[in-house]
Specification:
- The protein has about 200 residues and is an alpha/beta fold.
- The chain is built from 6 helices and 7 strands, in the order ααβαβαββαβββα.
- It has one domain: Rossmann fold (3-Layer(aba) Sandwich).
- It has a 7-stranded mixed β-sheet, with helices on one face.
- Helix 2 crosses helix 3.
- The chain starts with 12 loop residues before the first helix and ends with a helix.
- The model has no long low-confidence stretch (mean pLDDT about 90).
- S-adenosylmethionine binds next to helix 3 and strand 2.
């Protein structure tokens, strides 16, 4: 079910992909279809104890869905003033302000230490630019789910094809922030493999 007051978004898929292919410098606003957003949160096994951060939260659908359907806390970070204002107003109208917060600003400057799940519908280059910020702040065990665009250099834990309401295919990528010791062991194993 879509959220009342928000566009369905699924019909925008083809136009969005075209827009994405032409916007290598910035990330344009393109909503994730509701069915895909729901599957993203399921894929990350979101539970009431989680805190979901959607970086570049657009109309706010992912934080709102996370709170409404998965019972968790959620934070959206959005640079566009109108999208930020509209999503904040919607959270208030839906009486979700206790559990959903929208922050206006850049995700590069947002403190994400409280996130246990991060959702990203951004371009690969932007995911790449964000990866050090995420890796330095996310707690061990935090999951990161991306739509269509992977995080370059990160080890994909799981990947799945999902469909939107309009039967358009999307790829979801799941990553998990490892504990430091596990990350070091994985790096050592990678090095051994490379050296033979
Ligand atoms: C493709 S849309 C995704 C919207 C939403 N996450 C969803 O999946 O429906 C990307 C969003 O990121 C926002 N954005 C781009 N650069 C940003 C930045 N540096 N900081 C915060 N938001 C940003 C855009 O304004 C846009 O709303």
């Amino acid at each position: 079910m879509p959220i009342p007051g928000l566009r369905r978004g699924a019909s925008l898929a083809a136009r969005c992909r075209d827009l994405f292919s032409r916007s290598p410098k910035g990330v344009p606003y393109c909503p994730t279809p509701f069915a895909v957003a729901r599957q993203m949160l399921e894929f990350a096994s979101v539970a009431p104890a989680d805190t979901v951060y959607d970086l570049g939260s657009g109309d706010g659908r992912i934080p709102i869905l996370a709170a409404q359907e998965f019972g968790c806390r959620a934070v959206g970070v959005e640079i566009n003033g109108k999208l930020w204002r509209d999503s904040s107003d919607l959270a208030k109208r839906l009486r979700l302000e206790e559990r959903v917060e929208f922050r206006r600003g850049s995700f590069f400057e947002t403190d994400v230490r409280a996130a246990t799940v991060v959702t990203l519908y951004l371009l690969t280059a932007t995911n790449g630019a964000l990866q050090f910020h995420l890796a330095s702040q996310l707690p061990p065990g935090a999951r990161v789910v991306t739509v269509d665009y992977p995080v370059p250099g990160w080890r994909v834990e799981q990947q799945v094809e999902v469909k939107s309401e309009n039967n358009v295919s999307y790829t979801l990528f799941l990553y998990r922030r490892q504990a430091v010791a596990a990350a070091e062991a994985a790096t050592a194993a990678d090095l051994r493999e490379v050296r033979g």
